[in-house]
Every structure is written in C-alpha cells, then in structure tokens.
Amino acid sequence: MDEANRFLRQTVKYTTYITLVWAVLWAVVPGWKSVFSGLAIGSLVSVYFAVSMGRQLQAAVTIALRDEKRKPGFPLVSRIAVIALAVMVVKKLSYPNALLMIAAFFTYQLVIFAGFVLNRKKQQESKPEGVK
C-alpha cells in the first residue's frame, strides 16, 4: 500500500506542476491566453480527479482490509459537478478554449501512463544480464 500511496502522491504532484506551468504561461503569454487558460482550467480539474481517485482507492483498500460488504462512495457525481463548474467558468470568462480544457482533463491519466512507462524502463535497466 505504501507503494500505491507514493505513486499517488507523485501523480498529484506532477499534475499540479503541469497545471502551474499552464497557469504561468496563461499570465505571461497574453497572445495565447485562450490556449493556456483552457489547458490550465482543465489541468486544475485533473488535479481534483487525481485526488478523488486517491481517496476512492484508499476507501476501497480500507473496505477490503476490513472485509466489509459495503461499497465505497459514488465519486462520479462530484466529478460531473466539477466538470460542470469548469464549463461555467469557461462560459463566464468567454475566452478559454473549451476543447483544450476537455483535453486537459486527461492530464493525470497521462502522468500515470508516463510513470508506468518510466518505472518499467527503470526496472528493465536494473535487471542483471540474461534475466528476462
């Protein structure tokens, strides 16, 4: 479980870094305000998704360890509400690119994928010669 918590903390940390990069670029490059604002808002929602996923995983593990019959909560409703809030912000600001915002919702999944690829590569490099 410690490995999963470490991986989750890294995912949230790197997703937050990406969000901060988009937010800084939004402030610094006014000509691309539409692009970077959409990416920043979408990545911010993605940070929430990563934290929500972690809480859901923690609840599922706790329930499994206690051998309970109840199911974990229903986080889909809160995720839909956050997406609706992001859409309202885009409508209110009127300049963020909505398509890039939707694409940036998947930032944390891309961070997870990159983490798996890098960990796999490290494991293959650390194996001794002749071991598959």
Describe this protein's structure:
Helices cover 80% and strands 0% of the residues. It folds into two domains: 94 residues, no CATH class; 29 residues. The chain has five helices and no strands. The longest helix is centred in the middle third of the chain and has 34 residues. It has 132 residues and is mainly α. This is ATP synthase subunit I.
Which terms summarize this structure?
2 domains, mainly alpha
Brief characterization of the structure:
The chain is 80% helix and 0% strand.
Query: What is the alpha-carbon Rg in Å?
Result: 18 Å
Oligomer: single chain
Q: Give the proportion of residues in helices.
A: over 70%
- How many alpha or pi helices? 5
SS strand fraction: under 5%
- List segments where confidence is low: pLDDT < 50 over at least 5 consecutive residues: none
**Structural class designation:** mainly alpha
Order of secondary-structure elements: HHHHH
Cα distance spanning the termini: 26 Å
Total beta strands: 0
Strand count, sense and barrel status of the largest sheet are: none
How many separate structural domains? 2
pLDDT averaged residue by residue:
87
Shape: flat
Organism: Effusibacillus dendaii
Membrane topology: Multi-pass membrane protein
Keywords: Cell membrane, Membrane, Transmembrane, Transmembrane helix
Subcellular location: Cell membrane
